[in-house]
């Protein structure tokens, strides 16, 4: 049990690494095929059924790529499917959600000043919101509204803004942003798993049976693929945001999230337009920069995380430990010069990662991080600038492990 926290932290690191690797593979292939699709050109003499082609150079060779809008007259024996990148990204992301936010619900998921619920209830709310998001999105796409791409995108954006606000009324700021990313990413992966790939399989089966596939199958898949294309960059921001409290820990965090979706769409619009050879809409970058400056300003609004917070049962054990007075003296002497509301260490203007350790409750709330960063490893203080001794590190380890 003494080493469980360390092993669990390494498990989280490994799954996070897997998630990043699979996400790179998925996003890379997605962006490539969108750019390829937009860059296709037509020329006389193309084979029957070919919608367009593109010549590319890479790795010392040339590629001539042709796209059939429905399918070629005969399928080759080997057909490469791009699906596992998406599935692996979602599965690893959900595993990471469970490891960090579900297993550590009292610390990372629940803010009792926002919504005082038990860990099982918070987890059920999380799961339900993610699942219902896909059902709502899919229903809208299949409705009459789905035939109007612009109207559909506006309604979907309104839903995302509503969820941005709604999640901040349920969870911690960090968890709210993470869940908004999971909400959106689930829609993207479900698009691949439930629409894009199944439609492509129907097309293949129809061709093998000697029948002509319905063109609407390709149109549906293309619409969902386009949505995924525009949603990718905001999801990446939301997944990275848990490292930046200025994004999730401010009063208008939900507005920041809403603006990030607009910035993501603007950036993708620029690249999509360039890849389609329809000009260079540089105004998208200017508007994105303006919106980002607004986000920076919004982050200066006084944090809603200030003030008294309820102490969890686990934190009570850390506070009640006979070692706590000595631990408090150690943290105050070795850590609080940086991790304070007004840091006293030269060159440090704000508490790193917004971790403030100048009260008993704050030290108890960050007990696990103190244990891992300064007890079981020498990551903190950085470069041991405050000269923390080995005896003090052993004290932190004993305090945490006995209180657990």
What global shape is seen?
elongated
Count of helical regions? 15
Strand order within the widest beta sheet: 1-2
Strand content: under 5%
Termini, distance in Å? 9 Å
What do you see in this structure?
The chain contains 15 helices and two strands. The chain is mostly helical and 404 residues long. The chain has a two-stranded antiparallel ribbon. Strand 1 and strand 2 form a beta hairpin. The chain is elongated.
Write a concise keyword list for the protein shown above:
404 residues, mainly alpha, two-stranded antiparallel sheet, 15 helices
Short précis:
This protein has 404 residues and is mostly helical. Helix content is 64%, strand content 4%.
Which helices and strands occur, and which strands form pairs?
Elements: H1 4-39, E1 50-58, E2 61-68, H2 84-102, H3 105-109, H4 119-142, H5 149-168, H6 173-208, H7 215-240, H8 245-248, H9 253-275, H10 283-298, H11 313-320, H12 324-334, H13 360-365, H14 367-375, H15 390-403
Antiparallel strand pairs: 1-2
Helix pairs in contact: 1-2, 1-7, 1-9, 2-6, 4-6, 5-6, 5-9, 6-7, 7-9, 9-10, 12-15, 14-15
